[in-house]
Amino acid sequence: METAQGMNNTFRNEETAARHAPGMAMLIGNIVLVLAAIALFVISVIRMEADASDTGTIVLFVISILYGFIIGPFLFAGLKILKPNEAYVLTLFGRYIGTLRGPGFFFVNPFATAVNPTIADQGSQGPKEKPVSTSQLKLNSFSGLNQIPNRKISLKAITLNNEKQKINDALGNPVIIGIVVIWRVIDTARAVFNVDNYYEYLSIQCDSALRNIVRLYPYDASDEEGEKSLRGSSLEVAEKLKEEIQHKVEMAGIEIIEARITHLSYAPEIAAAMLQRQQASAIIAARQMIVEGAVGMVEMALAKLNDQQIVQLDEERKASMVSNLLVVLCGNRDVQPVVNSGSLY
After folding, report:
1. Would you put residue 288 in left (φ > 0), alpha (ψ -120 to 50) or beta?
2. Is 36 within 8 Å of 5 (Cβ atoms)?
3. What is d(CA 26, CA 76) in angstroms, rounded to the nearest whole number?
4. Cα separation, 332 vs 336, whole angstroms
5. What is the average pLDDT score of the chain?
6. Quick one: pLDDT at residue 193?
7. What pTM value is reported for the model?
8. How confident is the model over 19-45, as pLDDT tens digits?
9. Contacts of 207 (CB under 8 A, 6+ apart)
10. What backbone torsions phi and psi does residue 286 show, to the nearest 5 degrees?
11. Separation in Å, CA 81 to CA 37, 179, 316
12. Using one digit for the tens of pLDDT, what is the confidence trace for 278-300?
């Protein structure tokens, strides 16, 4: 019981708003104070040349150096700019102090550090970054520009397209299936602190949920059986898949917007056999429909002949006529006409 309670406490991270001040006001104010400190530094240096023993001048000299060259420039580190659907998860000496959300220009504690576990420099591999061309790398190296890690947490809807998997369906047949998942981060504190890398965590849970769902359904099922299948009940399977993934990633503060099957096929080793099976089923269904239609046409023909008294047929002749009509109607080839110039009898 104590272990379970400890685990629950570990994953109780909830997002809170970080304290901040208007960034523009702090920027202008700090620039004015830095300029004033520099001017004070110049004045104190001039006065110290005239009288080096003046205590007040020495104090002003020290204050101007501290603020103009140390404190003032350091305060600029607290300025943060956010675009729509972006957030900063801030920690202060290892303690979570809140999340900065919404577009704008903000000022936070300069000692606060933004955390994003999906960037490469934090020891875990996150989303694949877009490839950079060789010319771009040379340009960055020549200009001396460093690639600053983006520590912002994206709150936008993101598409996850995992690789195709080979999974056995409910009948044990191996199928190749691929899915696409549309998701977004709704609780930044859970996403950052409850799991090591929320992007990798989501990808693994998608694979696990897909295996659990595919094992419940056969690849295909006939309409007469009324059984749900991966091919015939794609909407229902997608909804169950979405619920399964959402349940698994709840602790990571992720919302699953949509989950869809993008690829579904038999594995190559049984694809040929299953294709023959599908073709045989289609042929049987077509033949069944043809026979049902032929029987109805024969019945209609006999009823017409009997009602209009065109010809009188005994039971033997009716059987022969029915046989001939069924052969003609159910045959694969066109009818070859036969001319009979004599009497039937």
Report:
1. alpha
2. no
3. 9
4. 12
5. 79
6. 92
7. 0.68
8. 999 999 999 999 999 999 999 999 888
9. 162, 165
10. -65, -45
11. 26, 35, 96
12. 677 777 777 778 777 778 887 78
* Residue type at position 22: P
Residue linked to tokens 């399964």: 244
Predicted confidence band at 10 (pLDDT cuts at 50, 70, 90)? low
Distance (Å, rounded) from C-alpha 233 to C-alpha 29? 63
pLDDT of residue 341: 53
157-266, what's its fold? Tetrahydropterin Synthase; Chain A (3.30.479)
Residue 143 CB: number of other CB atoms within 10 A? 8
Q: Please give the single-letter amino acid code of residue 233.
A: S
Phi and psi (nearest 5°) for 217?
A: -125, 145
Q: Report the phi/psi class of residue 255: left, alpha or beta, with left for phi > 0 and alpha for psi in -120 to 50.
A: beta
* Alpha-carbon distances, residue 28 vs 72, 76, 109, 246, 266 (angstroms): 12, 11, 17, 46, 65
Q: What is the location of CATH 3.30.479.30 in the chain?
A: 157-266
* Cα distance between residue 318 and residue 327, in whole Å: 14
DSSP state of 10: H
Residues 6+ apart with CB under 8 A from 279: none
